[in-house]
Prior knowledge:
- It contains eight helices and eight strands; from the N terminus they run E-H-H-H-H-H-H-H-H-E-E-E-E-E-E-E.
- By secondary structure, it is of the alpha+beta class.
- The strands form two sheets. A four-stranded antiparallel β-sheet has the order 1-4-8-2. Strands 3, 5, 6 and 7 form a four-stranded antiparallel β-sheet that branches.
- The longest helix has 20 residues.
- The radius of gyration is 21 Å and the shape is globular.
Amino acid sequence: xxxxxFEQPLNERIRACLRLEYLFSRMAQHxxxxxxxxxxxxxxxxxxxxxxxxxxxxxxxxxKELERQQAKLLHxxxxxxxxxxxxxxxxxxQAQLLDQLHRFSxxxxxxxxxNELINAIRQRASIPGALCSFDLPALHYWLSLPASERQDxxxxxxxxxxxxxxxxxxxxxxIRTSVQPAPQRxxxxxxxxxxxxxxxxxxxxxxAERNAPYYPEISxxxxxxxxxxxxxDRQTGHPYQVNFDVPFELAACQL
Length: 255
């Protein structure tokens, strides 16, 4: 059965990781398209990513999380049912990424703040319609360049962020796969789960049927998780809780 997965981070570190993952996933889609419109979207996403990188020390947070996960995996190495080959590959990957992050000089995204074109777009992007040709002729000149030249520029802007992107992907992947989802039922669209205060929960995942006419609203704290399944009036956009039982799966991820 096709599934639709909704996630709720439980701390600021994982919140930033998920936001970066979302932005770089969109970036990957636009890099598949060589149109000027996708090139502009790629720059706007890059600006958003640098804003996320600037709000917290992402490099430091990724180092902390990788080291924490590495310690957990090393502890699991003595468990009989662990796949030793897969574990060693993960530990090697973590060690390589930690080395790259420790050698990463400066703040992630700082190189983009030295680019006058990107700075001009950043300053105008929040103004409605302010990226048109008479506002930013330099942008429209750049968009008129051959697609290969635009792609080269974008690749050059992204390249210094590769260690951050790769470390972020691994951190999120390991958290997501740390537990198997368990079947649950939301009675009249409502579900609540008390959490073990001693467990290091980081992410809540709710898996629903993809084509179902409802979606979950998730709220979570260190004490409990609450899920309400909602429908939407598509004419007004108004959400309302369903009045029937909803089967779903839930994973309270911790590593």
